[in-house]
Design a protein that fits this description.
Blueprint: H1 3-13, H2 19-26, H3 30-44, E1 49-52, E2 55-59, H4 61-88, E3 93-99, H5 101-118, E4 122-128, H6 131-139, E5 145-147, E6 168-171, H7 186-190, E7 194-197, H8 204-213, E8 220-224, H9 227-235, E9 240-244
Parallel strand pairs: 3-4, 3-5, 7-8, 7-9
Antiparallel strand pairs: 1-2, 6-9
Helix pairs in contact: 1-3, 1-4, 2-3
Length: about 250
C-alpha cells in the first residue's frame, strides 16, 4: 500500500468519481490513477468503487470505511509536513482556528490583525460554526484550536483555557416600554417575545438554565446564529433581543 494510492482514491471520491477530472487536478494520467486504484483493491481484497464497464458508479460500503481512514491518514501526513516546516522556520507555516460568528465579527479582528502583523508569513485559516461544530473541528484535529463560549466541556479530549469574561445584553427598539430605563429582571424579559441565539450557541443554553432556575418559561419566537440577524428582527418589532454584549452596537 502506497500513500499515493490513498491520495488517488481520496481525490477520486471528492471529484464525483470522475477519474479524468482527478487526473487533471493532480497533473497525472487517467490510466495511471485507474491502475493504482486496481492495485490497491487487489492488495486489500475488496472493491473500493463499484463499476459499470469502465466507469465508477458509487463507493462500496467497504470503500466508505477505507476512504474515511484514508482521509485521516492524509490529514496526519499534512500535519507532519506542517510540523516539519514550522520547526524549520517558526515564523512560517499555517494556523487554523475555529470560532463563532460573534467572536469572528466583534472580538477577533484586532487580534487577527496583530497576529498577521507579527507573523506575516503564517497562513491563517478561520472556520466558523456553532460551538458544537467548532468543538468537533478542534477535537478531530481539523483546526489547531477553537474559540467558543460553550460546548467544549462535551469533549473530554479538549483542554479549556479561559480567555476573557463576557455577558449578555437585552436590545429593544427605542420606543419599546423596556427602553424607558430602570433595572431589568428575568421576569421583565420573560414577559415579552424573545429573539435570540439558537440553542447551544453563544451562551443560549446557560440563558435557558437561568430562566428555568427562576421558574420562568420565556416565549422564544425567533432564533438565529448571527447577532446581526437577531438585531435586524428586533428592529422589525418581532420581539426583544438577547445577544452577546460584545455584539451590541448602539
Amino acid at each position: 500500500m502506497k500513500l499515493q494510492q490513498l491520495r488517488y482514491i481520496w481525490e477520486v471520491a471528492h471529484h464525483d468519481l470522475n477519474v479524468s477530472a482527478t487526473a487533471q487536478s493532480l497533473f497525472t494520467s487517467q490510466p495511471g490513477i485507474s491502475k493504482q486504484i486496481r492495485l490497491l483493491e487487489d492488495e486489500l481484497g475488496v472493491e473500493i468503487f463499484a463499476r459499470s464497464g469502465k466507469h465508477l458508479t458509487h463507493v462500496t460500503p467497504a470503500g466508505e470505511v477505507i476512504l474515511e481512514t484514508a482521509g485521516e491518514i492524509l490529514r496526519k501526513v499534512e500535519s507532519i509536513k506542517q510540523v516539519a516546516q514550522e520547526f524549520c522556520d517558526e515564523k512560517k507555516g499555517a494556523l487554523s482556528i475555529a470560532t463563532t460568528h460573534t467572536q469572528a465579527r466583534y472580538v477577533l479582528p484586532p487580534v487577527i490583525r496583530g497576529f498577521i502583523e507579527r507573523y506575516p508569513e503564517v497562513s491563517l485559516h478561520m472556520h466558523q460554526g456553532t460551538p458544537m461544530q467548532i468543538a468537533e473541528l478542534a477535537s478531530d484535529g481539523t483546526v489547531d484550536f477553537a474559540i467558543a463560549t460553550e460546548a467544549m466541556e462535551l469533549f473530554g479530549d479538549l483542554v479549556m483555557l479561559p480567555c476573557y469574561r463576557w455577558n449578555r445584553s437585552v436590545i429593544v427598539p427605542r420606543d419599546h416600554p423596556l427602553a424607558q430605563g430602570g433595572e431589568l429582571t428575568l421576569a421583565d424579559v420573560a414577559a415579552h417575545p424573545l429573539v435570540t441565539y439558537v440553542f447551544g450557541f453563544t451562551g443560549r443554553s446557560r440563558l435557558d438554565e437561568a430562566f428555568s432556575a427562576a421558574g420562568l418559561t420565556p416565549r422564544v419566537v425567533f432564533t438565529a446564529a448571527d447577532a446581526d440577524v437577531i438585531k435586524t428582527y428586533v428592529r422589525l418589532g418581532l420581539g426583544i433581543g438577547i445577544i452577546a454584549s460584545m455584539a451590541h452596537d448602539p
